[in-house]
Task: inverse folding
């Protein structure tokens, strides 16, 4: 089945970087965009950016520009999200999600999502 | 950026109740809205896409409606498995933005 499996929880100190992986299976990795979304404790969902696995093209939300790096390894069907200069405000669950769009349907949606990776930033 | 205003932020309901969650976009987004269910320790799941299309495998008690700026998610008869947080999301333009979420709790 189509699945995204993320790397495990991370504990980081302020100022450090974290790199989260998202391994895809059950479909052709290069055919679908991957988006990254996070949810801080008690907060809503926040879109971070996307990567097109075929071209490697990326875009990110203005809030994260300069701090987030989205990459992929097509040989292992894995997408990566690296966030630098971490602060306590970056403590959150980070999700990857595959973007789906169908002819005749408006817009696009996320299906499936990864299981989430908890990143805790604490001194 | 398109702002998505979701209400209520939380509600208490009993099994069998009809539950209505609304989302208003700050500008017209046509039908480009999705609804997701989020549970602790679980991957979020799409329920409705393109405003009103039920995702395969999602129970028919979930339905979505609306177009332009005003949208609704309805759970026709709340079941124990439905206690969760629900988010709307617009896919009309980047950045993708979400509503603040509605936590559905047991009454």
Result:
């Amino acid at each position: 089945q189509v699945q995204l499996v993320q790397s495990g929880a991370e504990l980081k100190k302020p100022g450090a970087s974290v790199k989260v992986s998202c391994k895809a299976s059950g479909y052709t990795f290069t055919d679908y965009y991957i988006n990254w979304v996070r949810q801080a404790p008690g907060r809503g969902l926040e879109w971070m950016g996307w990567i097109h696995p075929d071209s490697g093209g990326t875009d990110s939300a203005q809030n994260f520009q300069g701090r987030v790096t989205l990459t992929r390894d097509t040989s292992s069907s894995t997408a990566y999200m690296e966030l630098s200069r971490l602060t306590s405000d970056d403590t959150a669950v980070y999700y990857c999600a595959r973007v789906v769009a169908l002819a005749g349907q408006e817009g696009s949606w996320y299906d499936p999502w990864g299981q989430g990776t908890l990143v805790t930033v604490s001194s | 950026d398109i702002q998505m205003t979701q209400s209520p932020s939380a509600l208490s309901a009993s099994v069998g109740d009809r539950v209505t969650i609304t989302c208003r976009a700050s500008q017209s987004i046509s039908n480009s809205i999705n609804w997701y269910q989020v549970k602790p320790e679980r991957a979020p799941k799409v329920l409705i896409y393109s405003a009103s299309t039920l995702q395969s495998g999602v129970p028919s008690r979930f339905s979505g409606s609306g177009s332009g700026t005003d949208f609704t998610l309805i759970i026709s008869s709340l079941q124990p498995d439905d206690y969760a947080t629900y988010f709307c999301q617009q896919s009309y333009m980047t950045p993708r933005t979400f509503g603040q979420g509605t936590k559905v709790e047991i009454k």
Remarks:
- The two ends of chain A are 40 Å apart (CA to CA).
- DSSP finds no helices and eleven strands in chain A.
- The first strand of chain A starts at residue 3 and ends at 6.
- The mean pLDDT of chain A is 96.
